[in-house]
Amino acid sequence: MSTLPSEQTVSGAPAQPAEQGRAVEQPATLANGQARPPAVIEARGLCKRYGQHWAVRDLDLVIHEGEIFGLLGPNGAGKTTTILMLLGLTDPTTGTVRVLGHDPWREPLAVKASVGYLPENVGFYDDMTGRQNLMYTARLNGLPDAVAKERVQSLLEAVGLAHAADRPVRVYSRGMRQRLGLADVLVKSPRVVILDEPTLGIDPAGIREILDLIARLAREERVTILISSHLLHQVQQICHRVGIFVGGRLIAHGSVAELSQKLAGGAPLVVDVEVEPKEDARRARDLLAGLEGVSSVDADPKTGRLQVGCSRDVRAKIARTLLEHGVDLVGLGLHTYGLDDIYHRYFQGGDAGEQREPVAGARPA
């Protein structure tokens, strides 16, 4: 995949603080002393009601320049309605939203000029070629033909479609249409890109290329990217922060590392322990609970497994304590929480429409 055409290069990705539930006022500088990138998307008390149904409730969220933010949640959680309000395609019932300083509902043209949107189902003129479709978009956005041709060719190469650029879109596969859709979004060099399931239908090798392209947009061109997806491992790979929607509410947001720490009950580390016989799990719990550096111990006597929350790596101390007290240790290792663990923590029981108990330390918006 070729290098993305760019107008400016700025290295580094924004570090983001932990944020749970409602957005909080953030300091003007990051932990490394650098100035925080400006806010690009701001929602304050944002609500949307359809009849008696609240699709979005009390959304407070700030997304900064050059940040990749992932929206997660089941169907009907409020993700799509939030995107529609950001695009000015539906008006809020209450609250405010600003995109690049503009009100999307009152200033739709100003927002559309700088925001690119890739919906889940992309539409093109099927009898036109991929190149012709992109040239059409370029002309609609006022690009001179010479500039448009160069831009279109660069984008076709960037999304891996140069070989199929002059074929009619009707012969494109679903994955090829997604690639073309991403190129189409980027034609006007948007400052904000909103992507709904951007890798749908793309093969594994192509997914890696698309994710690399998205990451490069944020890193090198400072494009702010909002991704709505159910593919958690992909979101985890590239997003600086994620937000989890349940029942129209944003109930937690932060980096995966920060949410993982909250899931661990605030302990920086969790150690997985397995003992035999399984019934010794309770005894092991009592032995380990008093160790220095241990903040919590959860035991399951049915499996013989324990999870030990601790402020530092105390595996050696755990092993020594159990062996000294005659408990047979058969497994010991550091536990890490992925986005799958975090996501499913909110949807235990399988009823995606019902709000679940939030991660420790979080509070509903």
CA-based shape: elongated
Q: Approximately how much beta-strand content do the residues carry?
A: 15-25%
The number of distinct β-strands equals: 13
Biggest β-sheet, characterized? Answer: 6 strands, mixed
Distance between the termini: 41 Å
Order of helices and strands: EEEHEHEHHHEHEHEEHEHEEHEH
The low-pLDDT segments are 6-25, 349-365
Question: What is the C-alpha radius of gyration, as a whole number of Å?
Answer: 24 Å
- Structure class: alpha/beta
Number of helices: 11
The CATH architecture of the domain at 39-114 and 190-260: 3-Layer(aba) Sandwich
If you average the pLDDT, what whole number results? Answer: 84
Reading off the top of the CATH hierarchy, the class of the domain at 39-114 and 190-260 is best stated as Alpha Beta
CATH topology of the domain at 39-114 and 190-260: Rossmann fold
Overview of this protein structure:
The protein is of the alpha/beta class. Among the domains are: 39-114 and 190-260, P-loop containing nucleotide triphosphate hydrolases (Rossmann fold, 3-Layer(aba) Sandwich), CATH 3.40.50; 265-336, Alpha-Beta Plaits, CATH 3.30.70.100. It contains 11 helices and 13 strands. The chain has a 6-stranded mixed sheet, with helices on both faces. Strands 11-12-10-13 form a 4-stranded antiparallel sheet, covered by helices on one side. It has a 3-stranded antiparallel sheet with strand order 2-1-4, covered by helices on one side. Helix 3 (130-140) packs across helix 4 (145-158), helix 4 (145-158) packs across helix 5 and helix 8 (256-263) packs across helix 11 (339-345). The protein is elongated and about 80 Å long. The relative contact order is 0.15. Residues 6-25 and 349-365 have low confidence and may be disordered.
